[in-house]
TrEMBL record, chains A, B:
UniProt entry keywords in alphabetical sequence: Amino-acid biosynthesis, ATP-binding, Kinase, Nucleotide-binding, Transferase
Organism: Candidatus Roizmanbacteria bacterium RIFCSPLOWO2_01_FULL_38_12
Keyword ATP-binding in record: yes
Name of the protein this chain belongs to: Acetylglutamate kinase
One Gene Ontology molecular-function label: ATP binding
Length: 267, 267
């Protein structure tokens, strides 16, 4: 089985991804797809007059501030438009897709964070009421039920807290926890870059191979969202994943290319 | 098995419905829930500056004009906010809910309508490009898979056309077709009225019993959306349903009350 995580950036080419997926499914691969929708979320939030508020952790990792209104926008973008439009696209390629969120059937069960520390104008302060959490437990029964009947699950955040609240969660981290729960050995992460770049301004500086033990050292090359992705990858190796592929989600045959090592392979 | 359809009106009390459902599930009932989200759809459309356009059929039945933007709003409201918030509420009552749309796994397969006749300013004219369809086929395999594993499916429109386009569809009609496909004998429809009213301005004029053969005569008492509901009910009897309950979705114990005959029973 293969888990593929697609970023939610503007230039991710869902048509190319669907076509490539179809060839893999036809060849007999069992696949789970996880997708982001950050671009659509920001667009809807802006149109509704609810701008996305970003917060920064003391260690310099940015994330989205999530109150109940923000969760609603999240649901509109991730579970509404992007999830269902992706399922629609997969049907056109004869893929038997079922769209779900981490909420459904308690697929992604998260520990809600209490008050969190944030960094604002170089000061560290405490922030309460943030509806976010970290995925700890997976309903692998529901996933196996679908996969064993030849459905391809198409999943996105949010998750559900142990106290039954919808909470925002990091998709990349949840992907890793899911791989562990299902005993999946390989994950492909597709995003808007050709791979992990040594210099994020130089598209040709792709690091093609990384040893899993070097991941901490790689943090220095990672900008913004990529830091979070590397935390997800670290988690993946902790729960038994053997190989992680980073690939460009904007090109033709994005998955096949990533599997061939045209991006970054971490093992 | 029991199918319960909840309207998407403003005053529908989802908390009461969830509590009532919990008691039925605890007593061993297998249930499928279908929900509307018309109020939330209109609200989002308005906030996004995409007002809902209603059209009128030559026979006087109103429905929503659906272009691709309208489908996106539909996905935000039905599959996004309302579906997932309802699933969240059901968890609080220990109900193992899984939210799906008619799109997922081709759950509701619809025949897309071609150009349709509409009535505008007392003139009948042809309208093209309307993304609507009528549900003809159900993926009963997916539903049984979930139900037999004790998941409670929470389903809403839209549906998927035979040509793999997301299309708006009438929830009440789809509910009836689904009952037929699953061999379900009873459907409860909950909405913002105490039952079918003889005089829609007089809340005390509830018709408590209707013979299924009198449905056509009842059309004269039906206002607006209720006409569509009665068409759905007619379809339900055609596909093998034995009893349909209309009940008030705003009160305590709305399902139990409807089953006790406090609204309208059609048989």
């Amino acid at each position: 089985m293969l888990i593929i995580k697609i970023g939610g950036g503007k230039n991710i080419n869902f048509d190319n991804i669907a076509a490539d997926l179809a060839s893999l499914v036809k060849a007999g691969s069992k696949i789970i797809l996880i997708h982001g929708a950050s671009e659509k979320r920001d667009e809807i939030a802006q149109r509704l007059g609810i701008p996305t508020k970003t917060i920064m952790s003391p260690s310099g990792i940015s994330s989205v501030l999530t109150d109940s209104d923000a969760i609603d926008v999240f649901l509109m973008a991730y579970c509404g438009v992007v999830n269902k439009r992706l399922v629609e696209k997969l049907f056109a390629h004869n893929i038997n897709a079922v769209g779900l969120s981490g909420v459904d059937g308690r697929l992604w069960q998260a520990k809600r964070k209490g008050a969190i520390m944030i960094k604002e104008k170089n000061k560290v302060k405490l922030l309460k009421g943030n509806l976010t959490g970290r995925v700890e437990k997976i309903n692998d029964h529901l996933l196996k039920l679908l996969i064993n009947s030849d459905y391809l699950p198409v999943i996105s955040a949010p998750a559900i807290s142990h106290e039954n609240e919808i909470v925002n969660t990091d998709n990349d981290f949840a992907t890793a926890v899911m791989a562990g729960a299902l005993g999946v050995f390989e994950i492909v992460y597709l995003f808007e870059a050709p791979g992990l770049l040594k210099d994020f301004k130089d598209k040709k500086s792709v690091i093609s191979q990384i040893n899993r033990n070097e991941l901490d050292d790689m943090m220095e090359f990672a900008e913004g969202r990529m830091k979070k992705k590397l935390i997800g990858v670290k988690k993946a190796f902790e729960v038994g994943v053997k190989k992680v592929y980073f690939g460009d989600g904007r090109v033709e045959n994005p998955i096949t290319n990533a599997l061939k090592g045209k991006g970054t392979i971490i093992s």
